[in-house]
Amino acid sequence: MRLYLCEKPSQAKDIAKVLGANRRGDGCWMGTDVTVTWCIGHLLETAPPDAYDERYKRWVLADLPIIPDKWKMLVKPKTASQFK
User: Fold this and answer.
1) Which DSSP state fits 81?
2) Domain check: are 32 and 54 in the same one?
3) Alpha helices in the chain (DSSP H)
4) Do 31 and 49 sit in the same domain of this protein?
5) What's the predicted TM-score (pTM) here?
6) d(CA 73, CA 44)
7) Is 29 exposed, middle or buried (0-12, 13-18, 19+ CB in 10 A)?
8) 26 CA to centre of own chain
9) Which residues, 6+ apart, have CB-to-CB distance to 3 below 8 Å?
10) What is the residue range of 17's domain?
11) pLDDT tens, position by position, 40-52
């Protein structure tokens, strides 16, 4: 299956029409071997500092800058259904 990710729903609808994806799904357009979906604002956000260490729950100047080895991303609750 080919997946196309568009910036916004109207763009996805236009591209889906060209690709023959005419069945409306939950947050997408589907066709034979093709799915076209879209984003709604920002689907992910960076995790807050305390997601890396409990001590960062309270801001202390000595802890700054906080630069993790690997950045954690969280799905925004408002856009979770589209992300899934």
Assistant:
1) H
2) no
3) 9-19, 80-83
4) no
5) 0.58
6) 6
7) buried
8) 15
9) 34, 35, 36, 37
10) 1-39
11) 778 889 999 999 9
